[in-house]
Structure formats: C-alpha cells, structure tokens
Amino acid sequence: MKLDADAIAEAALGLLDEVGLDGLTMRKVAAVLNVQAPALYWHVKNKRELLDVMARALFVAAMADVEAPRRDEDWREWMCAIAARLRRAMLRYRDGARVLAGTYVNEEVVWRSIELTLRTMEDAGFTTEQAARVFPITLHYTIGFVIEEQTRGGEEYPDGNPYVPERIAARVDGVRFPRAARLSTNLSTLADFDGEFDYGLRVIMAGIVATRGDDVE
C-alpha cells in the first residue's frame, strides 16, 4: 500500500469505532499501516493535520457526486437532502461529527458544494449576501446535531450510558420539575433522531425565508 495522506485518513477513520477520537494516536494509525509512527510525519505533521485529512475524506465521500437541484426540485428539499447526506457520512464512524467539527478542509469538493449552494439560493431569489449565510447555518446545525446524537450513545461513560431514559427519569425531581419529568419519561419515544433532524432542518428553512423579509418561496 502506498503511504500517503489518503491511506492515513482511511486507516484512522477505520480505527474510530475501536478507540474513538480521544483514543486515536499517530502510533495506533501507524500500527494499522504496518509502519513506524515517524513515517506518518512526512504526510501529516501532528494530530491536528491528521484530523484535517480524515475530515477531507469524510466530506468528499459525502459530497463528491452532489449535483444541482433538478428543474422541478424545491431549493429547501435540495438543502435538506444535502444536509442529510452529510449526516449519514458522519454517522458511519464513531465520533464522525467531532472529526469534521472545526477542521480545515481545502478541497475542490468543498468549494464546489459551496458554489452549488450559493447558486441554488440565488436562483431561488436570494441575494449573494443572503445566500452566503445559508451554507454555514445548515453545516453547523448538521455537525452540531450529529455531535449530540453520537454523544448519546454513551460509549465514553465507564458506568454505562447516562442518557438511557430510565436513568434520566430517576434523577429528575417530578415535584419541582414536573415538565422536565414528563419529558424524561417520554425520551424513548422522542429519540427519533431522523425525525428530529428533519424537523430542525424545516425550522431552519422556514427561518431563512422569514428573515429574508419578502415573498420568496
């Protein structure tokens, strides 16, 4: 196998389910690739750059074949579909959203995705300045949602997952906080991450239209 940034990213992403992001080290990645850790530093100087190449691989896998909306496709549906693609890509890996959060990805696929988003918004009647706000809003919502979604798996807690509905319900004082108690007992039915993610996107889309302040549809 040729040792380059792409091979290192693939090996590192493959380790996430086993060790998580906090347990990921250059030494462990090197072991998977059957090389010594110093060999990696020719391609990634430190863990920060390792995360960047991992994020690039993740983002490219999600967005490489994205196309502009079809002629009859609503811009909101297109935006929601793009966000859903990115969410699915992050969910393939333990801590996938943390990998993407705050990373620097200088990649043609990123710029193409931004270009398509801006053009789609402008075609829908938004100004360039208005359109420029939309990409980061949906991107940050998507990454933040998946960080919360993956955290609720509870893998990092040695005493078991504290997000289990029964454990949360047992800790809420129903007399002092009746609404919170009712919510906690219903968490198992509310844990529809697909539905909640889609609902949040719809709220964002409605807000984008509302803050434009005219009759855009």
Automatic annotation (TrEMBL):
This is TetR/AcrR family transcriptional regulator C-terminal domain-containing protein. Residues 2-62 form the HTH tetR-type domain. The keyword Thylakoid does not apply. InterPro entries: DNA-bd_HTH_TetR-type_CS (IPR023772), Homeodomain-like_sf (IPR009057), HTH-type_TetR-like_transc_reg (IPR050109), HTH_TetR (IPR001647), Repressor_TetR_C (IPR004111), Tet_transcr_reg_TetR (IPR003012), Tet_transcr_reg_TetR-rel_C_sf (IPR036271). It comes from Nocardia callitridis. Residues 25-44 bind DNA. Keywords: DNA-binding, Repressor, Transcription, Transcription regulation.
